[in-house]
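User: Can you help me understand a structure? I only have the sequence.
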Amino acid sequence: MSTILRGYTSTEKHSLLQSSELNIEIKVPKDDKIDFIIDVTDKDFQDFNGQITDTISFLTENLSQLSDLKNKMADLYWVLDYGYNTKVATGEFAVEGLHFPLQLIRLCTELNIEILVSLFDGNLFE
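Assistant: Let's start by predicting it. Here is the structure, written out as tokens:
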């Protein structure tokens, strides 16, 4: 997966994550928190625009369930993590910009989701 929604909350909220209709991968609890991952898109690391389009669709289609989780877990922290194979590292571009549409920012703001881009050098993974 190139885009995931990852987060954590207190372990006492474990049942809320499990009862969600979303496909949530729950990690083994550590201390008093539990980590989780939700796959957002299967677009590859080179298709940033496709990742963005799929993310907007995912958030829109699941807004009610995601809002429910946010509202029931006051200590919820989550972040959209975009994996991206930067073309600057490969030498294809000297400068590269990644655009976040206002619709995505609005959805993330409504859900208190942060945004992260994890940049990769594809040459190191060949």
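Now, to help you interpret it: The two ends are 17 Å apart (CA to CA). The helical segments are 14-19, 48-61, 63-72, 102-111. Let me know which part you'd like to focus on.
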